[in-house]
Write a structure and sequence with these properties.
Helix content is 45%, strand content 26%. By secondary structure, the protein is α+β, with helices and mostly antiparallel strands.
Length: 327
C-alpha cells in the first residue's frame, strides 16, 4: 500500500470516529440532557392487624388470603385452657361473695334468734325474782329484822341479774337485726369485686374468637393452625380497600412549592389513563431515606419527601402496588 492510500485510510478512520462521537453525543443529549426525571409512586391502602390480648394456640383460621370480610365476621379461633381455668376460679369467687352478702343481709339463722330470745327471757325472769327478793329484804331491813349487810348482798344480786337481763336483750336484738351496715357494705363490695373479675375473664374469653373490626380484604395470614401466638402477636392483616391513597417519594427540588390541598394528575398504567389526586400529607423521610449529595458540585444536599394524595374521583379496581407516574 502506498503512502497516498495510507493517508486516505487514516482520514476515513478519523471521519468515522468523529461521526460516532457526534451520534453518541446527540443520543446522550436527547436521552438525558433534555428529558425530565419522572416521579413514580404507587397505590397504597390503610391496613389493620388482627391480634389477641391473650396467648393461645391457633385452633382454626376461618378465612383465606384474598377473602373480603365484613365487620363482625369471625376470622380466627384460639384455644386457651388457662383462660377457661381462670373462668372457673372467677365463678367460684363470685358464688362465695354472693353467699356472704346474702348471709349478711339475712342476718343470723332463725335458730340463733330463737336461742337468744330464750336466754333473754330467762335473764328477764331471773331479774324479776331478784327484784322481788330485794324488795322483801328492804321491808325487813326497814323493820329492823335483817342487817344492812344482808340487804346490800341481795341488792347486789338484784343489780347483777338486771345487767344480765340487759345483756341478753342486746344479744337478742343483734341476732334479730343481723349484720351491721358496715359488714353489709363490705360483703356487697366483695360481690362487686368478684363480678369485676368475672367480667375481666369474660373479656379474655372473647379474645379467643377474633372478629373483623372493619370491612376489608384479608391481605396476609401469618400463623398456621396449631401454632402458638403470644399476646399481641399479629394473626393476619386486613386491608381497608375503601381507604385507597397514592404515595410518592419526591426529591425536594421537584416539589416546586407543592403543599397540602394541591391537586395534580398521575398516569396509571394498569388502567391506561390519568387520575386526579389531591395532596393531604407531606413529610420528610429523614436522614435514613434516599437523598442526593451535591456538595461536590458546590451546591447542596437534597432530601426526599413522602407525598400522599387521595383520589379526587374514586373508582373501583385500584389495588395496592399499582404504579403511578406523576404528570
Amino acid at each position: 500500500m502506498n503512502e497516498k492510500q495510507q493517508n486516505k485510510s487514516v482520514l476515513y478512520a478519523i471521519v468515522a470516529i468523529t461521526i460516532v462521537v457526534i451520534v453518541v453525543g446527540a443520543i446522550g443529549f436527547l436521552a438525558f440532557g433534555s428529558s425530565q426525571e419522572e416521579i413514580q409512586g404507587e397505590i397504597e391502602v390503610e391496613e389493620y392487624r388482627v391480634s389477641s390480648k391473650v396467648p393461645g394456640r391457633i385452633l382454626e383460621i376461618c378465612v383465606k388470603e384474598g377473602d373480603y370480610v365484613h365487620a363482625g365476621d369471625t376470622l380466627a379461633i384460639l384455644d386457651c385452657p388457662e383462660v377457661t381455668a381462670k373462668q372457673k376460679q372467677a365463678e367460684g369467687a363470685e358464688d362465695a361473695a354472693q353467699a356472704m352478702a346474702e348471709m349478711a343481709r339475712k342476718g343470723a339463722r332463725q335458730e340463733q334468734v330463737k336461742g337468744a330470745y330464750e336466754l333473754w327471757q330467762q335473764a328477764m325472769a331471773g331479774a324479776e325474782v331478784a327484784k322481788r327478793s330485794y324488795e322483801r329484804i328492804q321491808r325487813l331491813f326497814d323493820e329492823g329484822v335483817v342487817t344492812a349487810q344482808k340487804r346490800d348482798e341481795v341488792y347486789a344480786t338484784y343489780k347483777a341479774m338486771e345487767a344480765q337481763e340487759k345483756a341478753a336483750k342486746s344479744q337478742y336484738d343483734m341476732a334479730r337485726n343481723g349484720a351491721r351496715e358496715e359488714e353489709k357494705r363490705a360483703a356487697l363490695a366483695q360481690v362487686t369485686r368478684a363480678q369485676g373479675a368475672m367480667q375481666e375473664v369474660s373479656a379474655y374469653i372473647n379474645e379467643t374468637v377474633q372478629i373483623a373490626q372493619m370491612d376489608g380484604e384479608v391481605s396476609e395470614i401469618f400463623p398456621k393452625v396449631g401454632e402458638l401466638v403470644g399476646t399481641g402477636s399479629p394473626i393476619m392483616t386486613v386491608s381497608i380497600m375503601k381507604n385507597v391513597y397514592a404515595t410518592f417519594n419526591v426529591r425536594e427540588d421537584h416539589l416546586k412549592g407543592m403543599k397540602v390541598g394541591d391537586t395534580f394528575s398521575a398516569f396509571c398504567p394498569a388502567f391506561g389513563k390519568d387520575i386526579e389526586l389531591k395532596v393531604y400529607f407531606i413529610k420528610d423521610q429523614g436522614s435514613y431515606a434516599a437523598w442526593k449529595a451535591t456538595k461536590a458540585l458546590g451546591q447542596y444536599d437534597l432530601k426526599t419527601f413522602e407525598v400522599r394524595a387521595r383520589l379526587v374521583n374514586p373508582f373501583d379496581g385500584l389495588r395496592p402496588g399499582m404504579t403511578l407516574v406523576k404528570r
